[in-house]
Design goal:
The complex is a heterodimer of chains A (389) and B (126).
Chain A: E1 4-11, H1 22-37, E2 46-50, H2 54-57, H3 63-70, E3 77-80, H4 86-99, E4 105-112, H5 118-127, H6 142-157, H7 161-175, H8 189-194, E5 197-199, E6 202-203, E7 213-220, H9 222-228, E8 234-243, H10 258-271, E9 280-282, H11 288-297, H12 309-312, H13 328-332, H14 339-352, E10 367-374, E11 379-387
Parallel strand pairs in A: 2-3, 2-4, 9-10
Antiparallel strand pairs in A: 1-7, 1-8, 4-7, 5-6, 8-11, 10-11
Chain B: H1 9-17, E1 22-25, E2 31-32, E3 48-51, E4 55-64, E5 77-84, E6 87-93, E7 106-113, E8 120-125
Parallel strand pairs in B: 6-8
Antiparallel strand pairs in B: 1-2, 1-3, 4-5, 4-7, 5-6, 7-8
Classes of the chains: A alpha/beta (389), B mainly beta (126).
The structure holds zinc ion.
């Protein structure tokens, strides 16, 4: 199969930046990625940009060309919207453009700005990732949707809030050295259990924060990399996309996420690997239960078996399979449209030794995975990244 | 939220309100709800109308403390997913003490108004 080389990555600090415009945040991330790659704006063939709610939050549609010019090009650009999976799928489109031979140099990434909407506005905005008729009009918020899945999970497989709390504690710990993270704050299991409830059985510390930020990567075709003699230590070697019904009520099981399974199987086949080859993963943990559902959907654990992984230490730094060494969405933050790109940037830098948590990655780890989910996993993207020998 | 009538959905609410709820059944036996022209599970376009059972069973629920604007005057409230024969509905739970809402609990489905915007919403009652 043909690879798409990751030549550079860039991101803003994730956090609360209500006064920073989206175009400026994406400019910072995109230009940093170009600088990391050692490339100029004039070399860009195409821009793929993930964003969920900018039409509302920034009163700005047609953001593709807007952010392209922000990184110094009028190359063709498009916005990809798929809720929280927007930039994972923007990168998938970019990978396909490079692999098909249609483009040699692409900038792919995403941005979200939500803190300027306030908590009520952002809650309302995020709810738009659920089915308006059959979920939002029945009182389903985004946390409520994951809470419905969490309770169904407990009912199907057992477990409780304390098991989930260990996921939050782990991801906060991982973020402590990541200066780009929204939350650099050590927490304990009791902090999670004592936090105010948002939607039972989920509380404030089971949820990721509302963040602003941008992330971008530069992808290169193998021929262009060779021609220019560019250093490309890590490549995307597998890409997958899975889908499901929008509303939870139409799913066969409320305790599984088959879109993740489909996306993973496609990506594994594409890369010619299986889950046991993977040494580190960044998964979509918008809520603690989401990390559990993701690890099972990816085939890293059997159904019902990932809930205790954080508690047992298996997914912590130093464990057998470190999960979300960046801090995950939970602590690194979740600027919706930037998340998928930030995950891929995290895996790339963890693999090439430039991430602040790279010391938690064993020397023999050469394959990593990024999993990005939209809505209650009506969309999922999975990418496999490998160190090129 | 909007004045526009949503094709099929408002008619579905009208029927539920009149106590004559229905669902669509495809040739393969999948249950689904309007508005739809095709079964989301198999693509079948032969959707027959079938009678919605009047009682259902809660399969999962949550007490929502941080509401959407449409429900801000009712928070905290309980939203649940309940099975009615071959289909599931999502609705607000009313008329049951909070501590008595549990998985497996039997409910009926009615249409009521939310307190904030006076929009019709699918509601579960004992
Ligand atoms: Zn069908």
């Amino acid at each position: 199969m043909s690879k798409a080389f990751i030549a550079g990555t860039g991101m803003t600090a994730f956090g609360t930046h209500p006064r920073r415009s989206g175009r400026d945040m994406f400019a910072e991330a995109g230009l940093a990625a170009l600088e990391d790659a050692g490339l100029e704006s004039e070399e860009i063939d195409e821009v793929f940009y993930g964003n969920f709610i900018g039409t509302v939050s920034e009163n700005q549609g047609h953001q593709g060309p807007l952010v392209a010019e922000a990184v110094g090009t009028t190359a063709p650009a498009r916005r990809v919207e798929s809720a929280c999976a927007s930039s994972g799928l923007a990168i998938r489109d970019a990978v396909r453009a490079v692999r098909s031979g249609e483009a040699d140099v692409v900038v792919a990434g995403g941005m979200e700005r939500m803190s300027n909407m306030g908590t009520a506005g952002a809650t309302d905005g995020l709810a738009r990732a659920a089915d308006d008729l059959f979920e939002v009009q029945s009182g389903v918020t985004f946390p409520a949707a994951y809470a419905l899945m969490a309770r169904a999970y407990f009912d199907t497989f057992g477990g409780d809030r304390e098991d989930l709390a260990h996921v939050a504690v782990k991801n906060h710990d991982h973020a402590l050295v990541n200066d780009h993270a929204h939350l650099q704050e050590e927490i304990a299991v009791d902090d999670v259990l004592d936090a105010p409830e948002i939607a039972t059985p989920l509380g404030l510390y089971d949820a990721c924060p509302i963040s602003d930020g941008a992330a971008a990567i530069v992808l290169l075709s193998p021929s262009y990399a060779a021609e220019r003699g560019l250093d490309t230590g890590v490549a995307i070697t597998g890409s997958g996309h899975g889908g499901d019904t929008m509303a939870l009520q139409d799913r066969r099981s409320l305790a599984k996420t088959p879109a993740t399974r489909e996306a993973a199987n496609e990506a594994y086949t594409d890369a010619g690997i299986d889950p046991t080859d993977i040494g580190l993963v960044e998964v979509h943990d918008c809520f603690t239960i989401a990390e559990v559902l993701a690890l099972e959907g990816l085939g890293m654990y059997g159904y019902g078996e990932a809930l205790g992984a954080a508690r047992r230490g298996e997914t912590r730094r130093g464990g057998e399979l470190p999960v979300n060494l960046s801090g995950g969405l939970k602590a690194k933050g979740h600027p919706v449209g930037a998340t998928g790109a930030a995950q891929i940037a995290a895996v790339q830098t963890l693999l090439n030794g430039t991430h602040p948590r790279s010391d938690a990655v064993d020397d023999d780890v050469t394959v990593g995975l990024a999993h990005n989910a939209g809505g209650t996993v009506a969309s999922a993207s999975v990418h496999v990244l490998e160190v090129m020998a | 939220m909007t004045d526009a009538r949503e094709d099929g959905y408002d008619a579905f609410l009208d029927a539920l309100e009149a106590g004559e709820g229905y669902y669509y059944e495809c040739s393969s036996g999948h249950g689904t709800l309007p508005p739809r022209r095709a079964c989301p599970h198999c693509g079948d376009r032969e959707l027959a109308t079938a009678t919605l059972p009047s009682t259902g069973e809660i399969v999962t629920f949550t007490l929502v403390t941080v509401p959407t604007p449409q429900f801000k005057d009712e928070a905290p409230y309980i939203t649940a997913i309940a099975t009615f024969g071959p289909i599931r509905l999502t609705g607000i739970v009313r008329g049951i003490d909070r501590e008595n809402v549990e998985i497996g609990r039997e409910v009926t489905v009615v249409i009521e108004r939310d307190e904030t915007t006076d929009e019709r919403t699918i509601t579960f009652r004992p």
